Amino acid sequence: METIAEQSDVFPKLNVEEEPELSATEVESMCMNCHENGTTRLLLTQIPFYKEVVIMSFFCDHCGYENNEIQPGGEIAPKGIEFRTEIVTPRDLNRRVVKSDFSCIRIEELDFEIPAQSQKGEVTTVEGIIDRVVRGLDQDQPVRRIQHPEAAEQIDAFISNLQKLKELERPFTLTLTDISGNSFVENPNAPQKDVATTISYFQRTKEQNHMLGIFAHDEVADKPSNDAVEESVKLESVPEEVDSLLKPIREGAWPLEELQGEVLQFQTHCPECAAACDTNMKVTTIPHFKEVVIMATVCDNCGLRTNEVKPGGGIEEQGVKIEVSVRGRIDFARDVLKSESCSLHIRELECEVGAGALGGRFTTIEGLLTAMREQLVESTGMFMDSNDAETKERMDKFFGELDAAIAGDKPLTIVMDDPTGNSYVQSLNDDGTPDTALRIIRYHRSYDQNEELGLNDMKTENYAEEEKTEEADKKENC
Predict the structure, then answer these.
(1) Positions in the chain whose pLDDT score sits under 50
(2) Quick check: 127 and 94 in contact, CB under 8 A?
(3) What is the pLDDT at residue 55?
(4) Cα separation, 300 vs 297, whole angstroms
(5) What pLDDT, on the 0 to 100 scale, is given for residue 68?
(6) CB atoms within 10 A of CB 348
(7) Pairwise CA distance, residues 60 & 114, whole Å
């Protein structure tokens, strides 16, 4: 237990009031500029968007060279992320940006790209990204003007174009793509929707996983020798009556009805403190909806409690948009199933939470609003101490209105949009039909929505015929 407790304190939260004795570790290291010894300071902490991070700062007393970078200390996100932001106003230049080592930044108007792993991870701004590029291009210009005057002239012209971007002579588009999923671009209008930014998630390719050090079991496992193959054949031929530790389950021995009545438990690690804990899983059926899988995790070390819901079936033929008017305490008690692909919008507060932000969960309207508030507090707390007065005032006003809504003092209209059709809000009618405060709209998904869900290239019928056709074409070509 002592070892687990120590693990939870490895990455303390970055809060000066609660952690006044938070200190950095100092390590003597060589300066890459003058090759004398300088000092590197390491700080392991927790901040939103990265969770666990390692902040590093280097300074050399001999030549004055300094450098700082940030690296993620937690798990790699399951998907890559891409931010596409339109930079129009000076406020957009001040957007805070958290970028990892695997971030690729592109400015469309100049056809300019900063490749992944060419710069260290850092916390900066849009203007800071441009300044860093200008400094990098300008540092060798004096020598270049003598040795390669034509190339130096072209670089001077490009630097001039970058300076014009900072002066916002014309709007430009900044695209940040991170295969690790550990990057972030600030929304200056939070908690309202960021109309200038488009966020998309993508599945990594096999090569991108290898860049991150992620390999499948079959890629790292040694190929079995002929003796091992013969041994496995012998093991498979052993009759079931022989006493063994693991035996295959016969067909029909554990029907689905018994599975629904069982609570299955398996070991996992806490997402907050990484201590060993148990996750309970149960298959259940929601009346007037469908079958779902509920998973709940409780960590005895740090007290974390999480729940997650996965639809038991596949993606529905149509997407669903659910509008519920919250006017009293009875509406707060409605059961809600929100899938990972469902986005949330509150009209009266002009607040929108994107798909995947709250994850999949089975809760109530009140629980959904409370979880949304906690998510916003965590996400905006990273830069709260450096926000301007206008931003602080806007956030305080929003949280005041949200608290009043959770307390039941303010009517709300909540809109849930799920392109997979796997979200649900309980009706107050006994037969499951929508009541007067509940409106359900089903719609056909667009091509882009199907593309994001991977449905455009999916074929579930007659796929064997397509394989036979491809084999026949290959034989004809041969």
Answers:
(1) 1-8, 16-20, 49-50, 233-249, 254, 256-257, 382
(2) yes
(3) 81
(4) 10
(5) 81
(6) 13
(7) 27
What's the pLDDT tens digit per position in 256-287? 445 555 777 888 888 777 788 888 888 777 76
Secondary structure (3-state) at 146: helix
Q: Rounded distance, CA 98 to CA 153, Å?
A: 33
DSSP 289: S
**3 state SS of 151:** helix
- Beta strand 184-185 with 112-114 is unpaired
Q: What pLDDT sits at residue 117?
A: 82
Q: Is 453 strand, coil or helix? A: coil
Residue 8 confidence (pLDDT): 42
Paired strand residues for 442: 320
Cα–Cα distance, 136 to 289 (Å, whole number): 58
- Pairwise CA distance, residues 271 & 107, whole Å: 35
Name the one residue in this structure whose structure tokens are 């957009």.
Answer: 92
**Residue 250: its pLDDT value, please?**
52
**Distance (Å, whole) CA 73 – CA 50:** 8
Q: What is the pLDDT of residue 375?
A: 75
Here the tokens at position 228 are 């091992």
Q: Which of 36, 187, 26, 21 is CA-nearest to residue 97? A: 187
Looking at residue 302, what DSSP letter applies? T
Instruction: Give the span between the Cα atoms of 133 and 270, in whole angstroms.
Output: 40
Instruction: Please say whether the beta carbons of 52 and 72 come within 8 A.
Output: yes
Give me 293's structure tokens.
């899988």
Q: Is the peptide bond before 434 cis (omega within 30 degrees of 0)?
A: no
As to burial, measured by CB atoms within 10 angstroms (0-12 exposed, 13-18 middle, 19+ buried), residue 306 is middle
Concatenate the DSSP letters of all residues of 96-144 into one string. Answer: EEEE-TTEEEEEGGGTEEE-TTSS--EEEEHHHHHHHHHHHHHTTHHHH
pLDDT at 442: 92
Segment (H or E) for 338: strand 335-338
Q: pTM value?
A: 0.59
- Predicted local distance difference test score (pLDDT) of residue 439: 92
Distance in angstroms (rounded) separating the CA atoms of residues 214 and 219: 10
Rounded (10°) angle between helices 365-380 and 389-406: 160
Q: Tell me the pLDDT tens digit for each residue of 335-357.
A: 888 888 888 888 888 888 877 67
